[in-house]
Hints:
Keywords: Cell membrane, Membrane, Protein transport, Translocation, Transmembrane, Transmembrane helix, Transport. Forms a complex with TatA. There is one protein chain. This protein is mostly helical and about 260 residues long. A two-stranded parallel ribbon has the order 1-2. The radius of gyration is 24 Å and the shape is flat. Helix 1 (about 1-50) packs antiparallel against helix 2 and helix 2 (about 65-95) runs parallel beside helix 5. It has helices at about 1-50, 65-95, 100-105, 110-140, 150-165, 170-180, 185-190, 190-205, 210-260, and strands spanning about 55-60, 150.
Amino acid sequence: MTQQMEExxxxxxxxxxxxxxxxxxxxxxxxxxxxxxxxxxxxxxLTKAESAKGFVLHAFSFWxxxxxxxKIAGLFSLIITLxxxxxxxxKFVSPGLKPRERKxxxxxxxxxxxxxxxxxxxxxxxxxxxxxxxxxxxxxxxGLVETYGMKQYFxxxxxxxxxxxxxxxxxxxxxxxxxxxxxxxxxxxKMRRVAYFVLIFIAVVITPPDFISDLLxxxxxxxxxxxxxxxxxxxxxxxxAADEEIESRYVRAEDKKHVG
Length: 260
């Protein structure tokens, strides 16, 4: 009988997970459709921006144009879908949470959108021009003629913007996992060396191969981790205070029983 109940529980969980995934997929597809309507204005903005001036972009295949539009539409859909995906994850795990944990973790969902946009702005207006200037300087130093395909230009752009934008979700992710009691500041401090190594590796990979560029990206990423540890500590202290309050209430209730 117990085995049957466990099997039912697993089946129900899998069914719930499938339902959440279908919801996310529907929103992503709708976002993709909407993305095609904004693809051209976004493309015009990106190609007329200061960083793109001086480049004559070429199409080297019949699919380059539509491919860029699809990438822009996909990025737009990701921006729309990301907070909804986090909300669906919260809905999936919330039945196993205490009421106060449910309330505490739900409030993080709207900030997913804001942090992603902040990461996009930082990566596009700070890191991308720096990376572009470095690669252009090397090309000119080698005496090469710059002839770029639109596919290569936008792949370079999205290859920088997307990873950095996602990394800006790190503080929120750590607060969310702390709220679920999966992480805590003690564990994060123990993981600091490994985390620093991973973040430095990411900074080196996504930036041009010079120390200044690496440093300009590395410092914000390490600061993001330290901010994450600080925010995790705030959430953790609130959890401990709430646990102590509940425990004291329980002790008082037990004392009243014994007195009665």
